[in-house]
Amino acid sequence: MAEDKYERLPRAGDSEHQLGFETLYLAPKPLPAGQVPFSAQQMHREVNECYLDFAAGGGTREFAVRVTIGTLLLLSLVLVFSALLGAWLQVGVSSRFWSYAGQYLVYSLLLLSFFFAMFGSIIVYAAYKETRTPPIRFNRQRREVCYVPAKGKPVFILWEEVIACVAVEQVITQYSATQQFRLRLGFHDTTNEQMHWVTHAHASLMLAVSEWEALRVYMEQGPTALPPAPQREHEEGTLEYFYFARDTYKECHGFISYGGWWLLQLFTGWTIPCHIAEWFEHLPKAGFPKAVREWSKNLPTEQWAKPSEELLSQSAAIEAAFATGLSFPEYFKSPLVAFQSPSDAAPVKTKGKGKRARSRAAAETRASDPQEPRNARDASAGRPDH
């Protein structure tokens, strides 16, 4: 956290730079980021005029399960091959080969059972947390946010004091250099000076910013400011998305490329991860403590909290800068690359990059659609009027 660096909590426009890692803060104060609000991972569990519940979407779970299945299958193949190779090295091709191979296979199965149990317990624990961990609740009438930690009492934070930042990390391997993008939300509990962080990975910097912007416009404008939910075939982690990606890959790639994609999906569970992700969606959700339920009740309109004058003036200033063509990083003179929309960027070549790259390009195009009528300025009636 940037508290030591700035001798205060960070605020919108602050940035941090380390080797291979850059962070740009979007809040506090929650200023407009200049992006269309969009939730690529469908993380809005419940939305109404009073509050929005924010939690992980199905795409994250599907990917985690797919990686787990692929890892277990790879371990199985390695152990079986090692057992056969060990028997061959010890007795060669003789009548005793299968006897020795059988012994090695028994040991391999015991070791493999341990890995299956370990990964299975991780999934079970994740399901347990799903039913025990409430989402983050954004209350627009009170202009407050509630975070319920695993241990301890609920933490209530003023909306204008929530910390939000996007992080870009450069990951270098022996094969290539790639970037990872994250949206991080920080909740400072002033009762015990404890900081709670929640991190969500995204396919691009723009999608991470758009996810935050969706939360911001909800708090400032209400649920009508949010874009409509995408079709199921565009929602990562669903069966519809899997079959849509399969058909798209088949149409746009040759036989060899499509065959490689087909084998990769087969050896990572085919549609099993999608079914497990959907099963997670139907699990009973964790309830909120009584204090949070009382806090979540509707208030009379005259009792709604109002944005601060500081937020109003800063929002008006940055909106004026956007009108001149500046981006959020440019306005704050941040060295972090400006948020770039696909219409301004070079064409993205998705061929050969798999279904996640294709989905990312489609989501970014949707997120940057200038015709979206809900990308209006923050409205009046007690809300910022830029």
Summarize the structure.
By secondary structure, the protein is α+β, with helices and mostly antiparallel strands. The chain contains 11 helices and 10 strands. It has one domain.
Main beta-sheet annotation: 5 strands, antiparallel
The tally of domains stands at: 1
Proportion of beta-strand residues: 15-25%
C-alpha termini separation? 30 Å
Strand arrangement, major sheet:
1-2-8-9-10
**Given the helix and strand composition, which structural class is it?**
alpha+beta
What is the radius of gyration computed over CA atoms, rounded to a whole number of angstroms?
24 Å
Beta strands, count: 10
Order of SSEs: HEEEEHHEEEEEEHHHHHHHH
Helix content: 40-55%
Q: Write down the overall mean pLDDT.
A: 80
* pLDDT < 50 stretches: 1-6, 341-356, 369-386
Shape: elongated
Q: Count helical runs.
A: 11
Blueprint of the fold:
Layout: H1 3-6, E1 15-18, E2 21-27, E3 44-47, E4 51-54, H2 58-91, H3 97-132, E5 136-139, E6 144-147, E7 155-158, E8 163-172, E9 177-189, E10 194-202, H4 205-221, H5 239-252, H6 255-266, H7 272-281, H8 290-295, H9 309-323, H10 328-331, H11 354-367
Antiparallel strand pairs: 1-2, 2-8, 3-4, 4-5, 5-6, 6-7, 8-9, 9-10
Helix pairs in contact: 2-3, 2-7, 5-11
Descriptive terms for the model:
10 strands; elongated; 11 helices; alpha+beta; 386 residues; disordered C terminus; five-stranded antiparallel β-sheet
Description of the structure:
The protein is 43% helix and 16% strand. The protein has one domain. Strand 9 and strand 10 (194-202) form a beta hairpin. The protein is α+β, with helices and mostly antiparallel strands. Helix 2 runs antiparallel to helix 3 (97-132), helix 2 packs across helix 7 and helix 5 (239-252) packs across helix 11 (354-367). A five-stranded antiparallel beta sheet has the order 1-2-8-9-10, covered by helices on one side.
